[in-house]
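Journal club prep — side note

Before the paper discussion, L.F. wants everyone to see what a predicted structure for a comparable chain looks like in token form. Sequence:
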Amino acid sequence: MLEKHVQVLILSFYGLIRHVISAFNPQSCTVKAFKEPTTEDLSHDFLWRIHKRAPSRGEIVVFNRSHYEDIIQPRVHKTIHKSIWSQRYEHINAFERCLSDNSIKIIKFFLHISTEEQRKRLEERMNDPSKQWKVSERDITDRKFWNSYTVAYQDIINRCSNSWAPWYIIPANKKWFRNLVVALIIVDTLERMKPKFPKPTINLSKMTTDI
């Protein structure tokens, strides 16, 4: 647990959870996964489902995917008009600035792998019975959109990396190197935030164990 009034932290991941967060206390660290928007989600603005999962003070929240999907997917697959998704860069910057102004520290990681490495990992999963359940049809069909995804991510990083919510591009072909670099960035961020343990809720100086 962290002190209730200390800054909190959001980590926005695209494909990395277990190896980095295993060292965190589960009482103060939770993972929020964002899948396809529900009917209720779609009845609100695109940031509604994100904002309601923002951390309370003293918490660390890990976003597995995030509000950036609401630019990436519509742009690549042309599911909504450009006039709609093109406004979302500014909306996201304003949203993240609002979180930052309320003492929420945001760091975002883009795990960059080559198309050859992605193909290799996908084939390994497809050929491993213990991992086949992880493969979706989109994992395969989306490979033909590789260049479109690359351009879309480049624009997001260029337009939505700010001092209050920076993007970090992590070379991820080597998993050990990826894990190390991400861990070092998180440690450095936490050290600069200077988190503290919660204060006791009772006056321990007046307590005794001689009962």
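L.F.'s comment for the group: The CA atoms of residues 35 and 205 lie 49 Å apart. Keep this in mind when we get to the figures.
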